[in-house]
Amino acid sequence: MAPLFDAYRVFYGRPSDLKLAERFLLDRLGADESVIFGCRRCSTGLLVGFTQLYPSFSSASAGRIWILNDLFVTPDARRLGVGRVLIQAAHDHARETRALRVVLSTAHANQAAQALYESLGYVQDAEFRSYSFAVRPA
């Protein structure tokens, strides 16, 4: 899984660092802080995609939310339905854990991902704006 996660990070402009990728995944899974689903190519058994979910909660609705934070499919396996299968696994997991919803964000320019999400029933949030604050070490 670590090589695929490393490729995902590289896709988003980060330098390749297989040790960092492996440590990050082991830390998340070891602390029960994420759930990962993978998809293998039937003919070779090679991992061709994954999605990683992080738990969150809605205080107002008093329930669980899953953040679909990572979705990656290798270039040779794109447009074969792998992303759709992975998202369906995320939805199944959300139902099994009695979550209220699955949320995600994607780059404004990532039209292929947007088309996939919208085809699966995701709707763009028109009510709330998202903000972030980068915490810098002291």
Describe this structure in a few short sentences.
The chain is of the alpha+beta class. It has helices at residues 2-11, 18-30, 82-96, 111-119, and strands at residues 35-40, 47-58, 63-73, 101-103.
Question: Can you tell me about this structure?
Answer:
By secondary structure, this protein is α+β, with helices and mostly antiparallel strands. It has a domain at 34-119: Gcn5-related N-acetyltransferase (GNAT) (Aminopeptidase, 3-Layer(aba) Sandwich). The protein is 34% helix and 23% strand. The protein contains 4 helices and 4 strands, in the order ααβββαβα. It has a 4-stranded mixed sheet with strand order 1-2-3-4. A hairpin with a 6-residue loop joins strand 1 (35-40) and strand 2.
Helix content: 25-40%
Mean pLDDT reading: 94
CATH superfamily of the domain at 34-119: Gcn5-related N-acetyltransferase (GNAT)
CATH-level-2 architecture of the domain at 34-119:
3-Layer(aba) Sandwich
Tally of contiguous helical segments: 4
Q: In what range is the share of β-strand residues?
A: 15-25%
CATH class of the domain at 34-119: Alpha Beta
- Report the structural category: alpha+beta
CATH topology value of the domain at 34-119: Aminopeptidase
Q: List the strand order in the largest sheet.
A: 1-2-3-4
Gross morphology is globular
Notable traits:
single chain, 138 residues, alpha+beta, Aminopeptidase, four-stranded mixed β-sheet, 4 strands, globular
